[in-house]
């Protein structure tokens, strides 16, 4: 059973000093946080959309406070859930601090969705007509440190011959553009069906849950950067988890789901092979 003692790396910011990015000021948080880096679990949790910060230099991107607090800016509830889940498992956790509206860490740089010009609610004025230098500044400050931290963590575990399962954790809205999403949780997969099937089977033992198999999202190795690059391309076991936002919007829901997922992931992790 994992120890309750936090690892030495708990809550440690990662990445180069902010001043080096040319976008973040010295007193602004680093783009990526590593927690329980030395945790004994084979599970590594990645949260591409955990934060909703906007670098001071970018103002509000032309959006209202309501928009920046909503799902268009981040995955509501994910940071709290991931923090509780990582503590239960003593699993390494990699968190992105800045909003996906600054640059989406789960999309390929240069793609249309990398720095989106429109959210579900309308145009993102601060993302229009960016120069190549402005785009590069966002990548250097936010995208690159996050993926460098994940890459280093995965490499270190492979070098040590440790078992590893990479879990991408996200949340989804109860409805999108007027269409209801009834699932409580969705399991995303493509090339690694073994891990996904084990998780699906475990979740479906609870008859109260409506579990989506690649619903409301499927894993797309051409669009999704984190699991595709750090998992599929390396032949590492991986799975994506999407939880409905209204179920994890508060501490009670986050605690409930952390307990449920910890039990299942612990069982799956016990059979994991070296990466």
Which properties best describe this structure?
275 residues, alpha/beta, eight-stranded mixed β-sheet, 12 strands, globular
- Rg, rounded, reads 18 Å
Structural class: alpha/beta
Terminal residue distance:
21 Å
The portion of residues assigned to helices is 25-40%
Instruction: State the order of secondary-structure elements, H for helix, E for strand.
Output: EEEHHEEEHEEEEHEHEH
Unreliable stretches? 1-20
The overall strand count is 12
Proportion in β-strands:
15-25%
Spatial ordering of strands, largest sheet: 1-2-4-3-7-12-10-11
Coarse morphology: globular
Residue-averaged pLDDT: 92
Give the biggest beta sheet: 8 strands, mixed
Number of helices: 6
Written overview of the protein:
The protein is α/β, with parallel strands linked by helices. It has 6 helices and 12 strands. An 8-stranded mixed β-sheet has the order 1-2-4-3-7-12-10-11, with helices on both faces. It has a two-stranded antiparallel sheet with strand order 5-6. α2 crosses α6. The longest helix has 28 residues, at 132-159.
SSE topology:
Blueprint: E1 12-14, E2 32-35, E3 43-47, H1 65-69, H2 78-89, E4 92-96, E5 118-119, E6 122-123, H3 132-159, E7 165-172, E8 175-176, E9 179-180, E10 185-188, H4 193-204, E11 211-213, H5 225-230, E12 237-244, H6 251-269
Parallel strand pairs: 3-4, 3-7, 7-12, 10-11
Antiparallel strand pairs: 1-2, 2-4, 5-6, 8-9, 10-12
Helix pairs in contact: 2-6
């Amino acid at each position: 059973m994992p120890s309750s003692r936090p690892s030495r790396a708990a809550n440690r910011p990662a990445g180069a000093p902010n001043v080096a990015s040319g976008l973040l000021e010295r007193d602004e948080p680093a783009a990526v946080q590593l927690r329980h880096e030395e945790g004994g679990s084979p599970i590594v949790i990645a949260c591409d959309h955990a934060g909703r910060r906007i670098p001071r230099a970018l103002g509000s991107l032309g959006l209202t406070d309501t928009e920046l607090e909503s799902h268009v800016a981040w995955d509501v509830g994910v940071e709290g859930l991931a923090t509780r889940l990582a503590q239960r498992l003593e699993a390494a956790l990699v968190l992105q601090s800045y909003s996906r509206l600054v640059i989406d860490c789960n999309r390929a740089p240069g793609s249309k969705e990398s720095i989106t010009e429109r959210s579900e609610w309308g145009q993102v004025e601060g993302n229009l007509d960016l120069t190549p230098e402005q785009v590069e500044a966002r990548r250097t400050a936010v995208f690159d440190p996050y993926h460098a931290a994940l890459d280093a963590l995965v490499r270190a575990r492979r070098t040590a011959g440790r078992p590893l399962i990479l879990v991408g954790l996200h949340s989804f809205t109860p409805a999108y553009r007027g269409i209801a999403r009834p699932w409580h949780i969705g399991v995303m997969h493509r090339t690694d069906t073994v891990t996904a099937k084990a998780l699906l089977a475990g979740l479906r033992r609870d008859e109260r849950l409506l579990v989506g198999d690649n619903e409301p999202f499927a894993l797309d190795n051409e669009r999704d950067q984190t699991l595709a690059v750090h998992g599929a391309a390396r032949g590492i076991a991986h799975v994506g988890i999407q939880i409905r936002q209204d179920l994890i919007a508060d501490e009670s829901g986050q605690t409930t789901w952390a307990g449920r997922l910890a039990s299942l992931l612990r069982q799956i992790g016990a059979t994991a092979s070296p990466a």
